[in-house]
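Hello forum,

I keep getting stuck at the same step: I have a sequence, I want structure tokens, and every attempt I make locally crashes halfway through. Rather than fight my setup again tonight, could one of you with a working pipeline run this one for me? It's a single chain of 593 residues.
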Amino acid sequence: MHPRIEDYALIGDEQTAALVGTDGSVDWLCLPRFDSAACFAKLLGDEDNGHWRIAPLGAERCTRRAYRRDTLVLDTEWETAEGAVRVTDFMPQRDRAPDLVRVVEGLRGEVTVHSVLRLRFDYGSIVPWMRRADGHRVAVAGPDAAWLRSEPEVPTRGHDYGTHSEFTVAAGEKVAFVLTWHPSHEPRPARIDPYEALRHSVDDWRAWAARCRYDGPYRDAVVRSLITLKALTYKPTGGIVAAPTTSLPEEPGGVRNWDYRYCWLRDSTLTLGALLAAGYLEEAEAWRDWLLRAVAGNPSDLQIMYGLAGERRLPEFELPWLSGFDESTPVRIGNDAVNQLQLDVYGEVMDTLSLARRAGLPNKPQMWQLQRSLMRFLRTVWRQPDEGLWEVRGGRRHFVHSKVMVWVAADRAVRTLEEHPELEGDLEQWRALREEVHREVCERGYDPGRGTFTQSYGSRELDAALLFIPRVGFLPPDDPRVLGTIDAVEKELTRGGLVRRYSTEDPVDGLPGSEGTFLVCSFWLADALHMTGRTDEAEELFARLVGLANDVGLLAEEYDPVAGRQLGNFPQAFSHIGLVHTALALFGDEGAG
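Reply #2:
Ran it on my machine without issues. Output:
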């Protein structure tokens, strides 16, 4: 039986991440960065595309698993007729080289454990040369090299293009495996002590989690979401990837499979707000600084997403040798949506930098200059149609959310000048722009007959992004047009009580097939219900959304309420940002600083 997306757990070192299944198999790992080629790609293919499984001989799915409290250290346990065994998986903070550590510990009786390692570099396409050296197994192919060792040493044998180990652990006995990657032209990195690394990892994660200022209901879910966001942060730059995976399908067997191992500007304001509200000022500042570096340059070249360090070229191509998750092809690397025009990103950048300034983050001398440049350009292009927040591939339209975010850009520019009159800027022109955009959206983006804003000018379709209208201050929450839009979204875009982005029956996205409900959009609905006084309904929806997380508290991008399964790339930063933000909105007065 093919695993489900929710069968996986995340481990990582804030530069890359691995997915570990309930069967004890590491099925996805890109080295040395989130966006590098995978050396374990079974997630999108089969065992011959690379994986590393450690489990009791003959056992399948584990008996139980859990993260150690407030950490990213994963414990997976099996109960067998012979006894019980635990495998502890983690990736310690690296000095130079990335390490994957797997500690096998006997809990009861004597259990025979089998380890099989199949390294396949370049997304499962290259079988490396294997050799022995100083009691290690060494794999080399092209630019990649990896060393496998164990403490204490256990015998290994090569078979079927894999490295196999079979050993017995009694109660209290431990065997630690360490897999270390480095560029093949460089010498082997210094060896780490796996047990010391485990102690440090537990202590470091718990110290970080203890900084969370939120102490209200669902605190465990909030902290798990914050830990996940931390794990999706590329520490050298402060950028946060949307997800550590590519091509996990939005529809099983479908073609809606995208590479999410990059940093999206659409997430910027919500990310910064969640980090600030939860008390993580250093991480918020690092994200703000990443944003400033990434968007530097000509405002006409502003992109919707960037690489981990702000790279701009993310060409999209397909990997034909991978069969896809649950036979969902194509498997895509890169993302052509990087070349789209999305006017909303100007509003998101302006809103993020405005929030950073109000929150008291240290100012950057180039920040206001950048914002003025963005506003000068936006005034010349805001009337154009665009591809919109959801990166549709069915042609440009005048998306209402995009125009609302243009209004946000002008509004935040005006507010900044009003609060800081010492700054230079075109205050009257920006006020005029704000009024003009507001008037046009209310005239062309609102359907008075149905009492709702629409997805785009002249359309009858809806869009979950319309729920942002009261949130960003475009209209007050008690405005009848806002109340009508929330009612319409709830009536027409929900399935099983959860919210879809938009109707896929309309050819707006230019793609065949359908998709699941979007988890972050469902959090947005909870926020909108709360803002309009329907707090009991908001809390009920929030509780349901938290309950959709898998057994270790992780959320994908989407959920299929009919099949009861998660869909899309996993774990998804946007979903966890939504969880944190909604928890703070609903319960923050009780526990958030």
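The CA atoms of residues 337 and 405 lie 19 Å apart. If your local run keeps crashing, start a new thread with the error log.
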